[in-house]
Amino acid sequence: MLDWYSQPRFRPFALTHANGRCERPGALMIHGFTGSPDELRPIARIAHEAGFDVDVICLPGHGTDIGSFRTVEEGAWRQVALDAWRDFRHRYPWSVLVGYSLGGALAIHAAAERPPDAMLLLAPLVRIADRRAAALPIAQHLIREIEPFRRLDFAHPGVREFFGIIMPGLDLDDPAIQHAIRTEFAMPLRLVDECRRVGRECERLAPSIALPVTIIQGRPDAIVGHQRARWLVDRLAGSTVYHEIPGDHYIPFPGASSWPVVERLVANWFRDCWHALAGDTPTVTAPASPSEPGSDRQNPGADGATSSALRSMRETPHD
Fold this sequence. Notes:
Layout: H1 2-5, E1 13-15, E2 26-30, H2 41-49, E3 53-56, H3 76-91, E4 95-100, H4 102-113, E5 118-122, H5 136-142, E6 145-146, H6 157-166, H7 175-184, E7 187-188, H8 189-205, E8 213-219, H9 226-235, E9 240-246, H10 259-278, E10 295-298, H11 305-313
Parallel strand pairs: 2-3, 2-4, 4-5, 5-8, 8-9
Antiparallel strand pairs: 1-3, 6-7, 9-10
């Protein structure tokens, strides 16, 4: 699988405009656990088309750095995210954070240290949905690694659909690919526990996040649990908009059934942010979409939260 992840599309990337940074907002994006910058490419393109400059970082042991996954040191993901955000925040007059899954939790950590002008979280990790996660602090010392794909049936439609969404283009009929997936996707339990601890810390940080936040969450979510996203809405101190849509954890992927709704919500969010921050006509029109199923929630007083709260900060960009 090292050859698969050596492709240029799995590297960190930036989408910028030729007329310089001083005139426009920037968006820093953080991908999820075992993911890569490529999973946020569709959302990065939406942001860029809306007028934002975009940086999508790569967490240690992910993407083209997958070869070091097993040796990632404790705290490395948080440190890389914080360092990237500190640098990025100084480069633009207005900046927003976008995070998916583990990246959503890391975005909360970064926002607690240096608040963005707004934040978009997609299926953010607060707690791992599997109840066995509570045993990770002890289990990681008894079981060093697990191989979650060891017994996969590659003929099963659900397996083929899963990989078709998260790793499009992978030839699941190739015996060498099947062997690599079964044997090379070894996951140290200490890193799963690192995810657990990063997410749990968000529970402590949430009341300090006093800024406009929008959360898009699939339901049901067997990875991070959609109930915890609802819990997060009620704990964040700022104006919060919550969209819960039918789907699963993989909502940022164009192959997912929920993508047309997510695409529209994300386009609307960046359009509203651009209008509130840069102050002129947005440069993107949200794609047409059928009426959205699911539920939208806002915390008390959050009607028009993102646009109105951002507008109040427009004349006071952060240092």
